């Protein structure tokens, strides 16, 4: 929500909000496993989140901005929704049927490099070597943490298929990051971007679920409804608001370093609930990741990614 966009909120807080929430969310995603198909669950999640965002716009008196949007704006909001709140999540969910969550987390950390290269290609940003170096540092940290899973991994059969799904999910996610920058550059406020992005992502997955013969079931158990509400409110509305504001402030390249942080939070949760034990090697990996995060925040940004003043009342037609 745009109330998070205050200049008084430190950048590290905007880093921490989605990192912690998305790290914890893996626990709640597992609680959704059961009768309801993963694609259907994701569509429910973002439908609820979109409803909350449109209600927020109504209460803020900003719902009238919805009717000012051009077809071009709707097209790019649709593209963002499908890539950032739709297909990417489903592909990640599917990949974990074939490979471990550790391998998935390791692959998803390549978002840092994909954002660097796609940002250079589509946003005409200079490819900063220093960001690439700090990205390698964080990537090595991820490799050290998941070393045992990487050494046991065999690039064959269904595991190779799962790996390709995770890579494709990360690429789609990166493209969604780039489209979100384009939408913000056009002066669209974060609250409006999130509302339509989540709505379009949810509707796309819902339609795809119907076309592929998936049943639109609803699990009324406390476990499913509770996890669905957490994922809708915290992991979608709040986390995405903070993440898009982070992109607005420091750029899509630096914001991608969240991909190094939320797997660490997930491991903390695993150590609490699943008995994961920390080793000297894994602690070394954490130090490398924290060092990369510290260095990337110290690197001076070359040029503004998003115009400094984006007024919610000035919505492009």
Describe what you observe in this structure.
The chain has 317 residues and is mostly helical. It has one domain (11-298). The chain is 72% helix and 0% strand. The longest helix is centred in the middle third of the chain and has 29 residues, at 157-185. The protein is globular and about 55 Å long. Residues 1-5 and 308-314 have low confidence and may be disordered.
Write the layout of secondary structure elements.
Blueprint: H1 11-31, H2 38-59, H3 71-84, H4 87-95, H5 101-108, H6 111-122, H7 129-145, H8 147-152, H9 157-185, H10 190-211, H11 222-250, H12 252-255, H13 258-273, H14 280-298
Helix pairs in contact: 1-11, 1-13, 2-10, 2-11, 3-9, 3-10, 4-9, 5-9, 6-9, 7-14, 10-11
Coarse morphology: globular
Portion of residues in helices? over 70%
The major beta sheet can be summarized as: none
Order of helices and strands: HHHHHHHHHHHHHH
Please outline what is shown here:
This protein has 317 residues and is mainly α.
Which keywords apply here?
317 residues; mainly alpha; 14 helices; disordered N terminus
